[in-house]
Known about the structure:
Blueprint: E1 21-25, H1 29-40, E2 44-48, E3 60-63, H2 65-73, H3 77-83, E4 89-94, E5 99-104, H4 105-112, E6 117-120, H5 121-135, E7 138-140, E8 145-152, E9 159-165, E10 170-173, E11 175-178, H6 185-191, E12 198-210, H7 218-225, E13 228-234, E14 237-244, E15 249-257, E16 266-268, H8 271-277, H9 284-290, E17 296-302, E18 317-319, H10 322-325, H11 334-349, H12 357-389, H13 395-411
Parallel strand pairs: 1-2, 1-11, 2-7, 4-13, 11-18
Antiparallel strand pairs: 3-6, 4-5, 8-9, 9-10, 12-15, 12-17, 13-14, 14-15, 16-17
Bound molecules: flavin-adenine dinucleotide.
Amino acid sequence: MASDKPQVIQKQQRDASSKLDVIIVGAGLGGLGAGISILLAGHNVHILESTAEIGEIGAGIQCLPNASRVLISWGLEGYLSQHSTAPRLCNMIGWKGNKLSDMDFHEYAEQCGTPFWDFHRANLHMGLLERAIELGATLTVKKRVDNIEYETGAHGDSTTAIAVCADGTRYKADLIVGADGINSKCREILLGHEDPPLLTGDLAYRLLLNTQDMIKDPELKSMIEDPQVNYWIGPDAHAVNYVLRGGKLFNMVLLVPDDMPAGANTLAGNVEEMRALYKDWDPRIPKLLNLCQSVAKWRLMIRPGLDPTWSHESAAFTILGDAAHATLPYLASGAGMSLEDGHVLGLCLARLTSKSTAEKKKVLEVYERCRRERTERVVSRGNRQQYLYHVHDGPEQQERDRQLKEFGAFNGK
Length: 413
Ligand code: FAD
């Protein structure tokens, strides 16, 4: 049965007695999304970002229908549909080039009521930023939040938090939302001790090709004309690609064992080394990699969960996104989970009728209850996917491929 299209949420009006001043730490996808959702709930939002210029580093990003549902409900359909590509099929392919299964994304999107969208990250980021500003967000850059302090009101029934920045400036709010990504300082502050993300044993080479370079080769040209997402899966590695910006760019992510030195999480990669890792794969991959001039290397890390709670006991500080539950990108869902977090937090804050600590506490408990189980499941499914994609040739791989073919046949009716 097809799902309904989401309604666009209208901005709520509220008076000063229940209007929170909210500070968001980090203007990434999660922070901007939370900003939009909290503004729609009628509160004030000030975003503090540590970098001088805000923008997304990286290349492509896939938004599954759950994420596009949230984005559409924030009034972003017009802007984002202009900047996205909606791939027709998602193909699973063995590393030597044998197709195992496919899934009709258009048909599935029809059932979901919202599309699969592939973006250049800069476009998604800009759409979120412009919408947040349009709704009334203020943004201050070059503000690295280093600590959070708390103040209790004269009658003890309301708590505020203060974001203390590395340059000594202080910003007071009724609620601070830490959306500062996988290497989160906010998470550390909440826990009261260091808590580095966990290594996964994998890294990602991320690269963009100009499709003008591909069209001279008929085989590569066909990969642009009919946009599809391809997953090649093989021993200890896999590769993903999809088209961006209406066919102008071709995004590739190559996932291989982590050989990065301790301490470095992103580095310039060596193109020759990357090509050598895929030289025996489906000939389309070496052909594509021959067109690549430069590549970046990202260590992949996770945060399986956060105990005992995502929020401070004062109910004036909480966290979301990768800071709470960073996942391997193997289900293309990390940003989607960050956007959903912000959406749910905003919906909970829409119900607030006073600024009392007791009410904020209730809101944050409901927010966490709605989000914890789902996000932890995505992290553990991402780990499972790592295992399944990277199985070595043999009986286990044959069984995996058999099941994928069965799924493809079922999916194709
Ligand atoms: P971030 O995007 O990391 O944003 C954090 C922000 O906080 C940054 O702007 C940072 O500068 C700022 N900041 C950090 N510290 C401070 C501080 N102390 N004070 C102030 N500001 C601070 N997800 C998908 O849904 N689909 C995909 O296809 C997909 N592909 C991926 C491919 C790869 C290779 C990788 C690595 C990830 C992928 N993801 C994908 C995951 C996705 O990128 C993340 O889950 C998402 O960006 C997390 O958003 P966030 O806002 O929580 O954190």
